[in-house]
Design brief:
The protein is of the alpha+beta class. 22% of the residues lie in helices and 29% in strands. The chain has six helices and nine strands. The protein has a six-stranded antiparallel beta sheet.
Length: 191
């Protein structure tokens, strides 16, 4: 996605999606994409919409048009990610599900936002690659990273329940979680 001129952005379906993601749990996941006038929607993975178990791209489009991208994150469930390009508004959205079936990596190179579920694809367009030593140390100590930082400098993961929005120049990262979690402490008895 061209961050300086979002109107001129292109989406290459073959670049960002690995065969591993398509064949999770021994079933082939076919990406779906369709243009609805000036709104292009791409969905990778399996999903359903609350109250509509056989939902399709038209349902995602209708939710987007009537209620916005936040409502898609609230109502669409499953193991997926969604890319939406609204050509009229020159907006781009990349939404991750809340379960993180796969990682979505992203970086900026020469004013372009590059994203893929394959780290190798992102690294292939970077002019130079250097390690991010704090993430490497965290991974070696814990066996995993909890943050969005990868072991490669300037490459991040789109964490579950997050979305990237490109509006105008640059991009913003937004967090979404529809449920409010509260903890109530009960008094102890007979201690």
């Amino acid at each position: 996605i061209d961050l300086n001129n979002p109107r001129e952005s292109t989406f290459d379906e073959s670049f960002g999606i690995s065969e591993k993601f398509r064949q999770q749990k021994k079933r082939t996941l076919r990406p779906q994409s369709r243009s609805f006038g000036n709104v292009f929607i791409y969905v990778e993975g399996t999903y359903f919409i609350q109250g509509h178990p056989s939902a399709g791209l038209e349902d995602i489009y209708n939710i987007y048009v009537s209620s916005g991208v936040e409502e898609i994150q609230r109502r669409v469930e499953g193991l997926f990610f969604v890319y939406i390009h609204d050509r009229d508004k020159h907006h781009h959205f990349l939404l991750n599900n809340r379960y993180q079936l796969t990682h979505l990596y992203y970086t900026t190179v020469g004013g372009q936002l590059i994203f893929s579920d394959r780290l190798q694809s992102v690294l292939s367009v970077m002019p130079s690659v250097s390690p991010h030593f704090p993430s490497i140390a965290n991974f070696l100590a814990n066996g995993f990273n909890v943050s969005d930082q990868t072991q490669v400098a300037d490459v991040k993961k789109l964490l579950p329940t997050y979305r990237i929005e490109v509006k105008g120049k640059g991009f913003e990262l937004h967090h979404f979680w529809p449920e409010q979690i509260t903890f109530e402490r009960k008094p102890f008895k007979n201690l």
